Amino acid sequence: MLQPGDRVSHDKYGLGRVEEVSGVGDSAMSLIDFGSSGRVKLMHNHAPLTKL
């Protein structure tokens, strides 16, 4: 499970930092700041995220 402050990598957006986490289980989502790519809200179970 991702937590605020975690660093992640995404295939399209690159490196980012988790700002907020909401929901649980299959509906868990995170708001991630990808710097120049902007802030993106992604579902954990559908996004190609790697926790660093």
Topology readout:
Blueprint lengths: L6 E4 L3 E9 L6 E5 L5 E5 L5 E3 L1
Antiparallel strand pairs: 1-2, 1-5, 2-3, 3-4
Kindly describe this structure.
It is a single chain. This protein has one domain. 0% of the residues lie in helices and 50% in strands. Strand 3 (29-33) and strand 4 form a beta hairpin. It has strands at 7-10, 14-22, 29-33, 39-43, 49-51. It is mainly beta. It is built from no helices and 5 strands. It is an enzyme of class 3 (hydrolase). This is ATP-dependent helicase PcrA domain protein. Pfam families: PcrA_UvrD_tudor (PF21196). GO terms for molecular function: helicase activity; hydrolase activity.
> What percent of the residues sit in helical stretches (DSSP H or I)?
under 10%
- Structurally, the number of domains stands at 1
Strand order of the largest sheet: 4-3-2-1-5
* Secondary structural class: mainly beta
Largest sheet: 5 strands, antiparallel
Low-confidence stretches: none
Roughly how many Å is the radius of gyration?
10 Å
Number of DSSP E strands: 5
- Give the overall form: globular
End-to-end distance: 12 Å
Mean pLDDT: 95
Strand percentage lies at over 45%
**Total helix count?**
0
Would you list the SSEs in sequence order as H and E? Answer: EEEEE
